[in-house]
Amino acid sequence: MSTEPITYDVAVIGSGPGGYVAAIKANQLGLKVALIEKYSKFGGTCLHWGCIPTKSMLYSAELYDRALKGKEFGILCRDVKVDFRQVKARKDKVVKKLAMGTAFLIKKNHVATFLGKGTIASPGTVRVEGETAAEVKARNIVIATGSEAMLFPGLETDGRVILTNKEILDLDTVPKSLLVVGAGAVGIEFASLFARFGADVAVVEMLPRVLPLEDQEISEELHKLLSKRRIKILVGTRLESMAVEDGRAVATVLTPGGEAQRITAEKALIAVGRKPMTEGIGLEQLGVITSRGRIPVDAHMETNVPGVFAIGDVVPTQQLAHVASHQGMLVMRHLAGEHTAPLNYEQVPSCTFSYPEVASVGLTEQEARARGHEVVTSRFPFAAIGKASILGENDGFVKFVCDKKYNQILGVHMIGPHVTELIAEGTAALGLEATAEDVSHLIHAHPTVSEALMEAAEAIYGAAIHF
Ligand code: FAD
User: Fold this and answer.
1) What are phi and psi of 426, to 5 degrees?
2) Is residue 349 within 6 Å of ligand 1 at its C-beta?
3) Of the residues 183, 253, 362, 429, which has the maximum number of CB atoms within 10 A of its CB?
4) Ligand 1 pocket, 313 CB below 6 A?
């Protein structure tokens, strides 16, 4: 019997939505694959500290809020209270169930797994240190090590008062007050979540608007609606310092007018971006180029070193789970010899699961104009949609951004009820290079909130019925 060590076609380091999906796809395509994970479970940030736990808690917050408003709907809920330990327990149960499902799929797809920290020791060799210590030999290596919360120089989180997205998920009670630093998707979701559970929430953002990557009108509407929901928003405001005093977070911020303001809160969340986890994994010795910690790649996700690929939050594209997964599948199809088209990063849907929800795909109005398009836009309010009134969710709107010549859709931007589901239609429209007329001629079921898309498309050429 041969004692030769196995040489895998590909070794994947990191089992987030990039890594584990890549590994499954590799097996489906007939590649011999190894998956290396330093945490005790598979699934990465998304499953354990990101997408899934936050949405589970956001859903609990929504149910609480709806119970409080039940009277308007003829439902009398007495003594509505939050049992936050149960909110957390349910979140943990959802995560556990999905983690088991992920482990099952990995096993079912014959992925060889190694638990431990992976370091690229030399071309074609990954050293694993931890539960399953090993030297994994592979013809190709995929770096899918993801990201962690970014901190400022001099700012330390203590895990009890000053928190990142990890520790905040383990709170046992709803803090009376919460200061969120950073108004990107992560900051806004946590702000919304704890405000809905009754905390006094303030959000500090250095840039001039909340969700700064979204269309300006969407940011402005969100600012207005969050303020209406008692969240204090301070934009154009820079965090100068943060410390723990008498068990509370004490921050000094500089307002747009240059005035120093002191803010105190029971807890503070730092949500100012994500730092790629590319240090200490052997990239320097191998000569893999990084730029500000991220790994530049070509259209097939290959780094400057042949046979070494990178996907997900470590590369300079959108830090989203679905992007990581698609990049992982692309690499494997490429390695299996299939013809692959590069991903179109301009057609990636982006969602913020706050209250109200925000979702978008394609160019913002500002981006479209900057690229020289002659732009035409429409804006259709949910207030004019029957289903939105039924839900008692009249805030928000759908906005189309089109090129004037043929009304080709360049971007779809939404704020309001269920828009994180509705955005799939916008993604399809962009992917199929549809015009506003194309979408407006599709029959949308009544009464649904999706009718807002059809009407917003009609509004591009002045033909909306209900507004
Ligand atoms: P990760 O999911 O970060 O996984 C990387 C894995 O690699 C981890 O398991 C890590 O332990 C492992 N690892 C790291 N170094 C090593 C090593 N040396 N050896 C072995 N293993 C290693 N995105 C969305 O699309 N939708 C959302 O709703 C959403 N919500 C989010 C909410 C929060 C609070 C946060 C923080 C993020 C959210 N994201 C969301 C972003 C999403 O989680 C990431 O884009 C996604 O997880 C990136 O996937 P990845 O595979 O690149 O890395």
Assistant:
1) -60, -40
2) no
3) 183
4) yes
